[in-house]
């Protein structure tokens, strides 16, 4: 008897730089999973959201406002396109900073479901727009005196309420006037960021009421201002508190045990219609400033509480729990290592952005009774046809006993027993593996080039493991964390333990290990490079703390660091810097180092670069114009991706790309290698 041949699965193709940079995004991967990513229509049948995609050739971000029905297989309808990226106004030590942090950006439905209001940034100004849900009549509503921070509709749908950061615009006007007679150098200056003072940012919002028909603008009342949801500058207490109300007017809420407690802890309570208060006694119903609950809801029938939070080893998973205050029952509905972003309850389902380590974010509906997940829309269907490699979630402990985890990516085609070069990428490994925090070290592209990659999750802070009864305030807590370099050791021992695990598995070659980092990850990488002999090459996206940073960071950063135990500018302390600063250690530092810095932070890298070059160490530094802490320009990101890949290829695999455009790059790197080798032979 003949049998029909099984159809062959189409061969998957290798992943490319264009695949990674061309991902269509719903929300931002840099924001936490609690951040909202879509808006639900009043009848709860449709959602609206923004889709963004990098355009490398145009060096811009394409942006589209879309809506779609909440049903599998639906196709989003494009309502409006265009506009520049909108970034969060970030206060760093009370000063407004061009950080590059993407804003939470969602539209707002009108009460009748016929219009969407939203923010749109053009020519450097963030304005208030609206569009009909059929995609017609997209237009600016009014020209307002400051950037719009958030928007809401009045209950009758006839007016819009806009929140503005007017204080920033006003402060910049005062600063410009002050500049006519010269700026007094004081603690407003952050020299590495700018040569003029930064403006104070308290978080004050100004609210106006706007007629969408005439554009007329009047001040909003206090009640109208409360209609606006904004993520601007929440307090630590607000970050912990969650509430939900059911149709029976019963309330779920997280309550602080002691508002005066340094490390605030909370429990979940239900207040029933009979006035009775019931505390959920399950461990998953309690938490702290280090271990919050993501979201809480009432079930559709209003009888059960649904609790979404991190769970499992080192909080590496996300779980949904059901608690019945009326029956005192508690159960787990599901647990996943996937990232669930911006979840909202609709009927019996959770609508979420869901992403796995190997697949970008999709919109899904998760049944809150069974935990089963149904894909509503996949903006990147071609990823199912791409070969990326294999990923394994690893667990381990660091020197302080903290639970740590990471994702070990192994390239396709690796032979069993073959030990290969490994690159460490920091410091968030939840969800789709892009390029670590800041997205500059493309994990799947490293795997495509034959590297193993260990994507590590930042360890819980050292102070989170110390009883707060021993600490009087945050300054004392930070000082204790940095005494004897405990926090640095906490993070570095997490990385080295993970690398050692990859080596023991026979995957990583112990002689060819690289490390990367941005922000806190950069400081961790520098400490690891200076205090261990594990790493043979490194790349950094920002700099750590060298002695000159105590000057270039300005008075506020300097005072903050001194509270952490750093030496003052007037008091030299070579023994302190010997463990933490590249510039001070240039005489003994041998590791090839690539620095790719945003222009607004590049001054912090010059001391280390010049010191290393003076000692003929293999170091390169590139500066990217008009970039802050997080780099966003697609052309820059493409160049950063490519150079990071080439750098580790060159130093860990002795491999070069023969492309003509890279001849000068490799000539320079070969010169660095020869110079460093010559100095080593000479004993300098």
UniProtKB/TrEMBL annotation:
The answer to keyword Magnesium applying to this record is no
Peptidase S9 prolyl oligopeptidase catalytic domain mapped to chain residues: 486-654
For molecular function, the Gene Ontology terms on record are:
serine-type endopeptidase activity
Q: Name one GO biological process term.
A: proteolysis
Is 4Fe-4S set as a keyword in this record? no
Listed Gene3D superfamilies? alpha/beta hydrolase, TolB, C-terminal domain
Keyword list, A-Z: Hydrolase, Plasmid, Protease, Serine protease
Output this protein's name.
Answer: Peptidase S9 prolyl oligopeptidase catalytic domain-containing protein
Provenance organism: Novosphingobium resinovorum
Q: Lineage of this protein's species?
A: Bacteria, Pseudomonadati, Pseudomonadota, Alphaproteobacteria, Sphingomonadales
């Amino acid at each position: 008897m003949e049998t029909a041949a099984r159809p062959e699965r189409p061969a998957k193709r290798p992943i490319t730089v264009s695949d990674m940079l061309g991902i269509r995004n719903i929300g931002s991967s840099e924001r936490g999973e609690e951040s909202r990513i879509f808006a639900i229509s009043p009848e709860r049948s449709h959602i609206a959201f923004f889709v963004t995609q990098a355009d490398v050739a145009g060096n811009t971000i394409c942006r589209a406002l879309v809506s779609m029905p909440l049903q599998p297989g639906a196709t989003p309808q494009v309502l409006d396109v265009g506009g520049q990226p909108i970034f969060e106004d970030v206060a760093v030590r009370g000063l407004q900073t061009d950080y590059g942090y993407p804003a939470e950006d969602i539209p707002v439905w009108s009460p009748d479901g016929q219009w969407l209001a939203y923010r749109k940034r053009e020519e450097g100004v963030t304005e208030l727009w609206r569009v009909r849900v059929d995609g017609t009549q997209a237009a600016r509503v009014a020209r307002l005196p400051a950037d719009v921070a958030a928007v809401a509709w009045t209950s009758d749908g006839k007016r819009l309420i806009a929140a503005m950061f007017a204080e920033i615009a006003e402060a910049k006007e005062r600063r410009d006037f002050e500049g006519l007679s010269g700026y007094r150098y004081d603690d407003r200056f952050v020299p590495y960021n700018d040569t003029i003072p930064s403006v104070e940012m308290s978080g004050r919002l100004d609210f106006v009421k706007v007629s969408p028909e005439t554009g007329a603008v009047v001040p909003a009342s206090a009640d109208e201002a409360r209609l606006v949801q904004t993520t601007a500058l929440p307090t630590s207490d607000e970050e912990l508190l969650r509430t939900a109300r059911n149709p029976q007017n019963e309330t779920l809420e997280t309550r602080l045990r002691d508002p005066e407690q340094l490390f605030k802890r909370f429990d979940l309570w239900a207040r029933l219609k009979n006035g009775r208060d019931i505390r959920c006694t399950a461990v998953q119903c309690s938490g702290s400033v280090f271990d919050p609950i993501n979201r809480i809801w009432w079930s559709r029938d209003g009888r059960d509480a649904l609790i979404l939070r991190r769970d499992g080893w080192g909080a590496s998973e996300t779980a949904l729990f059901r608690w019945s205050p009326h029956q005192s029952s508690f159960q787990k509905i599901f647990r996943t290592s996937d990232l669930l972003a911006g979840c909202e309850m609709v009927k019996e389902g959770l609508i979420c952005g869901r992403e796995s380590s190997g697949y970008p974010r999709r919109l899904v509906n998760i049944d809150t009774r069974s935990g089963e997940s149904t894909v509503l829309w996949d903006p990147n269907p071609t990823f199912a046809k791409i070969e990326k490699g294999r990923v394994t979630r690893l667990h381990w402990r660091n020197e302080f006993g903290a639970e740590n985890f990471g994702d070990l990516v192994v390239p396709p085609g690796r032979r069993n027993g073959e030990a290969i070069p490994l690159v460490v990428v920091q410091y968030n490994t939840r969800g789709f593996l892009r390029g670590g925090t800041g997205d500059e070290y493309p994990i799947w592209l490293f795997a495509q080039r034959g590297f193993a990659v260990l994507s590590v999750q930042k360890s819980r802070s050292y102070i989170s493991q110390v009883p707060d009864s021993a600490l009087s305030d945050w300054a004392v807590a930070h000082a204790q964390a940095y005494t004897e370099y405990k926090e640095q050791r906490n993070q570095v021992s997490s990385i080295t333990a993970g690398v050692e695990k990859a080596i023991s598995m026979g995957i990583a070659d112990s002689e060819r290990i690289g490390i990367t980092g941005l922000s806190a990850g950069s400081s961790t990488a520098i400490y690891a490079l200076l205090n261990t002999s594990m790493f043979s090459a490194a790349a950094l996206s920002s700099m750590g703390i060298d002695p000159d940073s105590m000057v270039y960071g300005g008075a506020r950063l300097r005072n903050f660091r001194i509270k952490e135990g750093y030496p003052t500018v007037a008091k030299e302390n070579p023994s302190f810097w010997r463990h933490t600063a590249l510039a001070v250690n240039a005489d003994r530092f041998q590791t090839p180092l690539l620095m790719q810095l945003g222009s607004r932070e590049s001054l912090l890298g010059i001391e280390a670069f010049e010191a290393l070059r003076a000692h003929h160490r293999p170091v390169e530094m590139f500066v990217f114009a008009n970039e802050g802490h997080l780099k966003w320009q697609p052309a820059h990101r493409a160049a950063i991706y490519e150079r990071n890949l080439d750098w580790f290829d060159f130093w860990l695999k002795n491999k070069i790309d023969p492309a003509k455009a890279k001849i000068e790059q490799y000539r320079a790197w070969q010169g660095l290698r020869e110079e460093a080798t010559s100095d080593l032979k000479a004993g300098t």
